[in-house]
Write a structure and sequence with these properties.
Elements (H helix, E strand, L loop, with lengths): L7 H9 L5 E3 L6 E6 L8 E9 L11 E8 L2 E7 L6 H25 L9 H26 L5 H12 L16
Antiparallel strand pairs: 1-5, 2-3, 3-4, 4-5
Length: 180
């Protein structure tokens, strides 16, 4: 769940289906306090609470959720979950790791020009990820050895054109593409 699509009914639905979640919620979200959990004094956690999300009435969650608040580098994060078996620090780490995955996919899309997954199975996604990373690493090695530069959009474009026009003779200067 993304905080841009924050929906209290979805939280209830996921819990009803036995599915766990960790999601960032908006700062202005109304919360009805049920329980305040004790904190580790050496932690960056600001609070750990059991709450009902939303205002009384229509938008309020039926099932309570756990909200963990923490601050890093001046930014306050409010993370909600149904997991009570984890520490507040573990909940914060799960959110950080989730965000690291988001950043990886953003990098993957930008540098490898992959805009969607071809496969839906775990194995298929892994094959697509690994083949993309191998391709990028080969490109990085090639560009470093032949041009003494990192991979650039211009260089990728030149290589893509050369691949689709295999009859072109190799050009041996730094301004043009060298063939392997």
């Amino acid at each position: 769940m993304d905080r841009g699509y924050q929906c209290h009914k979805l939280s209830d639905s996921l819990q009803g289906d036995g599915k766990s979640f960790v999601c960032r919620v908006r700062k202005n979200t109304k919360m009805g306090l049920i329980t305040e959990y004790p904190l580790n004094p050496d932690s960056h956690i600001i609070f750990d609470r059991l709450v009902c999300l939303g205002a009384s009435g229509v938008s309020r969650t039926e099932k309570p959720v756990r909200v963990v608040g923490y601050r890093i580098a001046g930014t306050e994060y409010l993370i909600t979950t149904d997991r009570h078996d984890l520490t507040a620090e573990q909940i914060a780490l799960i959110y950080k790791l989730r965000w690291d995955i988001e950043k990886f996919f953003q990098w993957w899309k930008k540098h490898l020009k992959v805009y969607h997954l071809i496969a839906r199975s775990e194995y298929g996604v892994m094959v697509q990820l690994l083949s993309g990373l191998i391709t990028y690493l080969l490109m990085a090695i090639y560009c470093q050895r032949h041009y003494d530069e990192s991979v650039s959009a211009m260089r990728l474009r030149q290589i893509r054109i050369a691949i689709h026009k295999p009859n072109l003779p190799p050009i041996n200067n730094k301004d043009n593409l060298l063939f392997l």
